[in-house]
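Hi Q.,

Before the meeting this afternoon, I wanted you to have the Double cubane cluster prediction in hand. No need to reply - just skim if you have a minute. The sequence and ligand are here:
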Amino acid sequence: MTADYRLMWTNLGLDLNAHDALLAVLGKAYQEIYLSQKNRPDAMGYFDFVMSEVHGLRIKELLDEKAAGRKIIGSYCVFVPEEIVLAANATLVGLCSGADFATENVEKLLPRNTCALIKSSFGFKVGKVCPYLESADMIVGENTCDGKKKAYETLGHLVKNLYVMDLPQVKSEQGKALLRAEYGRFKAAVEKLTSATVTPESLKKAILTVNAKRAAIHRLSSLRKADPTPISGLDALLANQVFFYDNPARFTESVNKLCDELEKRVKDKTGVFPEKTPRILVSGCPQAVPNWKLPLIVETSGAVIVGEESCVGERGTRNLTDESGETIEEMMEDIVDRYFQVDCAIFTPNPDRLNHIEEMVKAFKADGVIHYGLQFCQPYLMESIPVEKALEEKGIPCLRIETDYSMEDVGQLKTRVEAFIEQLR
Ligand code: BJ8
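Predicted structure with the ligand bound:
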């Protein structure tokens, strides 16, 4: 099987040596961080399997889908509506990356002071190590933060199938009209790519499929409200990360199976950490695979993460699309309504996000919030200051951290996180 995979990666144009090196680092990190955790739910075995096959079996499935006439679409943002992609006979995969790669070459294309998430996505392209990116028939870039929208101008020279989606920056009627127009344009582009027409039936089915996936994640989030928490923040983050890669129906089933086990744990008061362990809400920039740096620090410092106010987490999954629409126009409007609620920091002003952080603190009985900002990410770093101020006014301790994907600052971060947790006890 490994030989088949190597042939598959070669055919995709990957650099096998670089790819071997990446898989070795990823495998080692996974072993050390995940497989050494204590009291893990048995159902996490599925996610371990997915991670061990993330560049193997899952890629083979995508290539089999392509051979059967389906198209693959890659995305860097939760604003790309999976409902439209599925309804037009295509599969959506996430392309955001959470590890430094080929940084020297990336810095020949992008300024050094670009956030790690953008640099990493470029590194996976220029280093030729991402089979998802190389399998994609269309890559969607979106005009969100300045870093991303300018980086896509450069990415357009590196890939031949880039589609850029414009996005509003203000939650106004004009902003909504722009989103509506852009989703209509995107639907037409995907239909052109797949030569399929979105029908009321296919769109309805897609809405139900994506909602089911989100509902399973909502169930998982809800179980984390228990004390002791039945699952670690590391494992819950992993499930949220796999959301972007896996087959939707299988993912839904696997998360629900995990939740069945967690329900029993809650009933039996079985937790990953003892009762009354300090509870942390993480808020801020998305943490893409394999970025497990912050949860590892927190959960090896005497606290547990009970929620993520993040696009790899609640911000990305929290609202369902209304399922009552019958015509294409009604369903497209329901999709616009659903996505227009995403409170990314690129919006100005953005009071919804602050309100949501406070709601999450209450709902998850968090003792404190760690605001996770990637270095050079202006939208989230700018918002971290009013977030901290508002939380402190309500007596909710907040620690703002600013970091990247390197491991150089782990010691220093751990010291700060430990001091913060001490303050919560
Ligand atoms: S909806 S959060 S997925 S844009 S970390 S690249 S913001 S400089 S990722 Fe995002 Fe869509 Fe918004 Fe969500 Fe820019 Fe910041 Fe980098 Fe970021």
